[in-house]
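Title: Comparing notes on inverse folding

I've been comparing how different people in this forum approach sequence design from structure. To keep things fair, I'm posting one structure and asking everyone to reply with a full sequence. Here's the target:
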């Protein structure tokens, strides 16, 4: 794998410590593009595609893009089952430091059931009673020495599919040790998050348009995208005026709020095989760009390229993504690629 042309020794950040779901899943292709109804029965087929959960996806791409000199430490749980053993092996193979990935003997590895429509859109459902569900504050505290060792030189990632308490603890550790703090939340979590002080410990909030609608207390089926983008950014900034916000929306692209400026980039126009995991891939590109010293707008460009590369794989981790592939995609981008990114992608 060819990582980005970045010298980690010259970067401000040397490590990413994250928590979130570690698990696998199956894809079910529905017949018909109309939205599945509450009491509807729908036929379809199970696809031969591998699904991975959020922490694994983002950690994999960040490690692959930034190379051996950048450390990635996921904090999470797997079950004592064949699936968990296989996932741990895959994480070790890409070079993740799995010292804080623990095996739970009375819970299965997290499972996600992904449903897809023929137009390649879709969603997923994850199990609540998995090993990931018992990741807690103590799990985060086990990595305390890492925060001390990397004080002022790290990024924390608080991703969904583990309890909010664990993510809140991680963000507090990040604040106490001067880390750059990245967080993401599901739509069902947004009300709790918006009514808490958690966002005060976040530098970059990364969400999709549906999650943004819930942050602004809007109906995602009735409000137009720009109304949701503006309202959610206003709502979030009432809690934390300095927070930066990333919002993705599939084919419509992404919006970034940096200081007082909103930048929008369209998605790449590509032959899509599977959109699942594209948002996580986009976020990994954002994080990698931040580590490489890019501006947030430039990191948005890199995130768009990584997200675009991810949809060309049937699996939610495209293990073929590297500098060469991103370089080729950059030539098809419907926007100007910055010189800094061109340098990162030179082959």
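Reply #1:
Here's my take.
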């Amino acid at each position: 794998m060819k990582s980005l042309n970045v010298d980690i020794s010259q970067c401000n950040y040397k490590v990413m410590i994250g928590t979130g779901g570690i698990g696998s899943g199956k894809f079910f292709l529905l017949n018909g593009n109309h939205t599945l109804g509450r009491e509807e029965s729908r036929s379809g087929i199970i696809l031969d595609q591998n699904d991975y959960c959020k922490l694994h996806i983002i950690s994999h791409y960040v490690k692959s893009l930034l190379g051996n000199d950048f450390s990635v430490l996921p904090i999470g749980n797997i079950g004592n089952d064949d699936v968990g053993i296989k996932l741990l092996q895959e994480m070790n193979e890409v070079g993740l430091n799995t010292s804080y990935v623990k095996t739970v003997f009375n819970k299965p590895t997290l499972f996600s059931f992904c449903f897809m429509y023929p137009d390649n859109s879709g969603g997923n459902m994850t199990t609540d009673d998995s090993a990931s569900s018992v990741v807690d504050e103590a799990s985060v505290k086990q990595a305390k020495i890492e925060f001390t060792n990397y004080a002022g030189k790290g990024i924390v990632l608080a991703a969904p599919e583990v309890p909010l308490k664990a993510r809140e603890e991680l963000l507090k550790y990040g604040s106490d040790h001067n880390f750059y703090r990245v967080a993401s939340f599901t739509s069902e979590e947004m009300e709790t998050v918006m009514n808490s002080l958690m966002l005060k410990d976040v530098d970059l909030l990364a969400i999709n348009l549906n999650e943004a609608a819930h942050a602004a207390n809007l109906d995602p089926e009735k409000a137009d995208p720009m109304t949701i983008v503006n309202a959610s950014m206003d709502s979030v900034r009432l809690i934390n005026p300095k927070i930066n916000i990333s919002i993705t929306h599939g084919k419509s692209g992404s919006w970034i709020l940096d200081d007082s400026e909103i930048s929008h980039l369209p998605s790449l126009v590509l032959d899509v095989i599977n959109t699942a995991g594209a948002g996580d891939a986009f976020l990994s590109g954002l994080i990698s760009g931040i580590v490489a010293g890019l501006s947030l707008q430039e990191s948005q460009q890199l995130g768009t390229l990584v997200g675009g590369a991810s949809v060309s794989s049937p699996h939610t981790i495209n293990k073929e993504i590297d500098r060469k592939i991103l370089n080729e995609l950059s030539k098809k981008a419907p926007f100007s690629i910055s010189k800094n990114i061109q340098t990162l992608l030179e082959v």
